[in-house]
Amino acid sequence: MEPSPELLLIVVIPRPERGGSVRLQPGGCELVLESVRGGHTLLWSDGRTSRRFALGLVDEGRLTLELRAPRLPVRVITRDVISLVPGGRLRGYLQIPLVPSLVWHRDGSRPSILIELPPRELAAEWDDREGHSFRCPSSLHSRFPMRSNDPCAVVPVVLCNPSGTVASPPHVPLQLRDAELSELRGTVVVKPRRLRWVGERFAMDAPRDGVPVQP
Fold first, then answer.
1. In this prediction, what percent of the chain has a pLDDT beyond 90?
2. pLDDT one-digit tens code per residue, 1-39
3. Which of 119, 94, 121, 100 is nearest to 175 (CA)?
4. d(C-alpha 46, C-alpha 117), whole Å
5. Pairing, β 112-116 against β 193-197
6. CA atoms within 13 A of residue 134's CA, in its CB half-sphere
7. Rg of the Cα atoms in the chain
8. DSSP structural state of residue 164
9. How far apart are CA 86 and CA 122, in angstroms?
């Protein structure tokens, strides 16, 4: 079995000569940038679906493909049924899909996102109390997940139930930031999250600076 490609947060996309093309395979996906008359075309495929884009670029700049955190909070629907007795604690790892984004860089200007390619696993939804968010499924892994082709972040979590009743959460709320994404052993990780049961839902403590991820 061939090893899965390493996930890189930033991949520089070389600009092809006129009439030429470049092909990249970041994180198990395929990207083809072609230089055509009057501009460039980009073909993106994740192995299940493909999309084509027309780009108007200038010479003074460069393109990167970046894995970015979802912009909205994420409700993780665990494939495992979780129950915490009063005073109980559970540790594990969740996986959150990242958003491949085509970014334009030019000296003296802030980077600009040209295209976002959200994975199908991220489903947008609306809640009257909490507003817009994403929903995605994930197993609660007891060990650091094996590396895969899917662009996702590994989130170490500690679930605590300080209440006097049994906690059976319908989902685990998480929110990631681009600045905290980091590469580790061919995958992407973030700082651990500690969540406390507060009666009907989990409340998320701030990320713990300086706490290492233990694969």
1. 56
2. 344 567 889 999 998 888 889 998 876 788 899 998 889
3. 94
4. 10
5. unpaired
6. 22
7. 20
8. S
9. 32
Please say whether the beta carbons of 167 and 158 come within 8 A. no
Structure tokens at 14: 């070389």
Beta strand 131-138 with 74-78: parallel, antiparallel or unpaired?
A: parallel
Sequence-distant (6+) residues with CB within 8 A of 107 are 60
| Cα 58 from Cα 118, distance rounded (Å) | 26
- pLDDT tens digits along 89-145: 999 999 999 999 999 998 878 899 999 988 888 988 887 777 788 999 999 999 999
Strands (E), the chain: 10-13, 21-24, 30-36, 39-45, 50-55, 62-68, 74-78, 89-97, 99-105, 112-116, 123-127, 131-138, 152-160, 172-174, 182-184, 187-189, 193-197, 202-204
> What is the residue whose two structure tokens read 């590396």?
147
Contact 157, 92 (CB under 8 A): yes
In three-state secondary structure terms, 133 is: strand
Give residues with Cβ within 8 angstroms of 61, minimum separation 6: 104, 105, 106
What are the extents of the domains in the chain? 70-97+119-204
